[in-house]
Every structure is written in structure tokens, then in C-alpha cells.
């Protein structure tokens, strides 16, 4: 198969378009173009084309993995799932994740610590932090260490209630505030204590 055209400039994603005779195309990163010494007019046999397509897929998965990790903290499992959802081959997605781990660009233990720190900063309860770890596919072996020093959220619960109930402490407003705190991962006990500090009653429907 002969290369009819090789773009002289990359597209916005940094890829060069290669067009073969017959009209089929590949979008390749510069490293792949250089590794295969591609140029217009070059003839490739079937095995060459097969290897080129494999290399293109591997590099695509790696570069997409880099972009995902640069944008947000992800676990290895979450990264692999995102790559596959974006259309990457599952095997090549797994290889890209392993490559990122070798470069210390993805670390489940560190990601777990960052997720928990972010939840604490937002004033979430420990239950919400656990939910975030689960959603990010952090292996449970890292949960205990990440959650071991979770800060007390009592003051943040009190402040939340003060803000929500300022000038409006009727039963319906209190129930809405309690529901919001429960969604944020706080326990009934912690919410009850905060209400007592503000000399407010815990909604009766939550008792018993």
C-alpha cells in the first residue's frame, strides 16, 4: 500500500494525517511518523500496515491518557474505563495505563489521598468521601490510609446550618437542611449535635 499524502502540519490534537492509495487514512503522532520513517510515495506491505495501525492505536491511547490525567485526578481503573469509553482498544488502554504508572503519572494511593482531601475541604462527611473513592474506582486497599486522618466536620456542619437556616428555621427548612447534609455524607448523630448547638430540634421523621 502506497502513501499518497502526508500532512506537513499537525492538526489541533497534534496528529498528522496520512492518506493511502484507495482513500483510507490514519492520524498519527509525530513519533509514530518518525518511527516508521513515513513519507509520500513510500510503499508499505500488509505487515507494515498492520504494525503501523497497532502503533497508531498504542500512541493514541497513551496521548489520550496523558490528557485525561492532566485534566483530573484518576485511578488506574477509572483511567482505563475512560480510555475505552473514548474508543480506545481495551488492550491498548491497559498498556497505556501501565505506561503511565511506570512514569509515575498515575498512582492510586496518591489519588485516593487527593480525593479525600478535596472532600474534606468541601465540608463533606466521611460517607461522601467513601462514595467518591468508590466512584473513582480506587481499590479498597487504599481507603483506610486515605481516610485515617479525616478532619472533624462539626464546625462546617454548624456553619452550613447557620447559613441555610438564617431567618428561616421552620420545620420544612430544617428538614431540607438535614437532607442536604445527609447527601453530603454526614451522619445523623453529627447533624443532631450541630442542631443542638444551635438550639434547634432534630426533625421528628428521622427519629426511631
Summary, kept brief:
By secondary structure, the protein is mainly alpha-helical. The protein is built from ten helices and three strands.
How are the elements arranged and paired?
Elements: E1 3-6, E2 15-20, E3 25-29, H1 30-35, H2 46-71, H3 76-85, H4 90-102, H5 108-121, H6 126-135, H7 143-147, H8 154-165, H9 171-183, H10 188-197
Antiparallel strand pairs: 1-2, 2-3
3D architecture notes:
With 208 residues, this protein is mostly helical. It folds into three domains: 3-102, Arc Repressor Mutant, subunit A (Orthogonal Bundle), CATH 1.10.10.10; 108-147; 154-206, no CATH class. 57% of the residues lie in helices and 7% in strands. It is built from ten helices and three strands, in the order E-E-E-H-H-H-H-H-H-H-H-H-H. A three-stranded antiparallel β-sheet has the order 1-2-3. A hairpin with a 4-residue loop joins strand 2 (15-20) and strand 3 (25-29). The termini are far apart. 25% of the residues are buried.
Corresponding CATH superfamily of the largest domain:
Winged helix-like DNA-binding domain superfamily/Winged helix DNA-binding domain
Ranges where pLDDT stays below 50 over 5 or more residues in a row are none
Mean pLDDT: 90
Beta-strand percent range: 5-15%
What is the overall silhouette? elongated
**Architecture of the largest domain, according to CATH?**
Orthogonal Bundle
CATH topology of the largest domain: Arc Repressor Mutant, subunit A
Radius of gyration: 26 Å
Give the class-level CATH name of the largest domain. Answer: Mainly Alpha
Total discrete domains: 3
How many E strands? 3
Largest sheet report: 3 strands, antiparallel
The amount of helix comes to 55-70%
Give the strand order of the largest sheet, numbering strands 1, 2, ... along the chain: 1-2-3
Total helix count?
10
Structural class computed from helices and strand pairing: mainly alpha
N to C succession of SSEs: EEEHHHHHHHHHH
Q: How far is the N terminus from the C terminus? A: 75 Å
